[in-house]
Amino acid sequence: MSLLMDENLTGKGLTIPETHEGHTVLEGWLLKRGAVVKNLKRRYFILSRGRMDYYHDLDKEKEKYLKLERKGTFPIHNAQVVYCRATYELLVLNKEPAAEVREKPQGGLFTKLMGGSEEVSTDFGFCVRSEGRVLMLYAKSKQEMDEWNKAITRCNEFDPLDTENPPPVKDGWLVKTSSTDAEQKLRYAVLYDGRMNYFEDSADEQVKVCMPLNDVRVELMPSTSEDGSGSSKFQVAGRDGVWFFEAANDFEANSWVEAIQQSVNFSPSWIPIQKEGWMVKLGHRTETLTRRYFVLSGGLVAYYVDETMTSELGRIPVRGPGVKVELSDVESGNASGFSFKIFNGKEELICTAPTEEKKTEWLEAIREVVVHCAPAGGETADAASDDDPVGSEEGFYLIKWAHN
């Protein structure tokens, strides 16, 4: 049985400020599946920040020499921790693993431990994916498995600037439906900026399909639930076809839709442009003012180095559960008073138009996109009048949706 070594793990978050490299956070026995030969071996794991060390089976009398017989080390860097397919089906979907999954080595229920006749349960399997490697582990119980998952997540060294092994935008299990034969398949999906990879199992290293997110549209599908709950299904439509997915619940579906919307690569030549032009942008980290070429298209405000739109520098979605556009007091030379701020609940962008007329045009264009993207049954509040495109006397325009 594993032993929790750090009481701070009961909190929330992704880092442990009190933990330094080499400090043991969690340790105990787990079953490890071989990377080459898919057999099971019992290993003793020691988890610390940024790494997991594992050791051979040991005689109890020699257990004091444990750390001298290390078998290997697995990095915990921009890592994902996820249930294996059989475990997800059993615990989340509340059904027995599919036959083709159970027939695979260590695909669910019971299997023999290597080097003996002892049968062990593989119902509680989870994967750690990091730096292109996969570590497949099995715990004795759901409680023990969740304890390890939580501890590994907390010990993850998260580096959003790592371009060689970037962290995913989102990952998890989805049911994929083909647009041709309506066949449903459970897939583990990993979303990056501009693409979504999915696998047959979270333990697979080989990508089943890489779906580029170029010029695609994503939206929730109408709910068919009789209890009034939201839809757990969404669709992704692109030039090459339409893909249908179903998440575990409506919350997860909304999370996927929002994440994919922010990861789409739009081609200005294909997506209609509602508004474009030069403005001055206020820096996020340092309050520097930089002239950029802005484009409102596909529900996004993107900015580029110049009007060729070949080098995108950033973007902010202007569709979602709430978008706020308000006047700003930023001044930039002779453009004083022509500034406004876009805020979508997570990000903000402060721009200064060259004239009052251009500022009004941008505000009206963004308002039109926000209203157009409002879901069916939604309602607006604090809406601006025709004479005042910005909104109320305080100078803001806010769209809200009613959540049933």
UniProtKB/TrEMBL annotation:
Residues 23-157, 167-265, 272-371 form the PH domain. PROSITE patterns: PH_DOMAIN. The lineage of its organism: Eukaryota, Viridiplantae, Chlorophyta, Pyramimonadophyceae, Pyramimonadales. It comes from Cymbomonas tetramitiformis. This is PH domain-containing protein.
